[in-house]
Amino acid sequence: MPSPEPKTGVVLLAAGQGRRFGGGKLTADFRGRPLWEWAAQTAESIDSSERLLVIGPKSPIESREGWRLVENPVAERGMGTSIAAGVRALADSDRVVIMLADMPLVSRSHLGLLLEAQGVAFTLYPDRSAGCPAIFPRSVFPLLESLSGDRGARSLDLGDAELIAPPHERQLVDVDEVCDLQRLRSAD
Predict the structure, then answer these.
(1) Which residues form the MobA-like NTP transferase domain (predicted)?
(2) Cα within 13 Å of Cα(79), Cβ side
(3) Inter-helix orientation angle 108-115/35-44, to 10°
(4) Which of 59, 64, 143, 166 could be joined to 171 by an S-S link, Cβ 3.0–4.6 Å?
(5) pLDDT (tens digit, 9 = 90+) per residue, 8-40?
(6) Which residues have a Cβ under 8 Å from the Cβ of 161 and sit 6 or more positions away?
(7) Domain range list for the chain
């Protein structure tokens, strides 16, 4: 009898303050919806056992059906704290996909490639660096839960991680500043 598919949790990081954007980045309009909802919708297209949305204190983001809000009270200390908070809050997952809420163009097909990985897998960026979205097996959850500050999962010794390029480089666009969002809007 084949072994059952692993249960996959999704942690969507939406706790950043968007300082370079001038605030309000994740709730800014993109194609008629708040920016963060595009990443959430893509995450909803994969089979997952649970979906967690990590937000900071006083976040204007309200939950979305099918998502559980996790507040990171120390979000201002950096992304590592949000990864740790999200992974710690997982209740029923054998592995986790970590995504960023300011990357609206990541596709279902790219997430599908990550889901095929047997261990740790990061997205391969054009500059040959590793980043999000990424997938991690339960065996590394304790390491993810130990993250603090601005250190992300790339800073951990996770052995031989697979690097997976998305079908189209454009999917890796993230919105940091207002001009990034304006470029995305004008490219439509």
Answers:
(1) 10-156
(2) 18
(3) 50
(4) 166
(5) 999 999 998 777 777 778 888 888 999 999 999
(6) 119, 120, 121, 122, 130
(7) 8-187
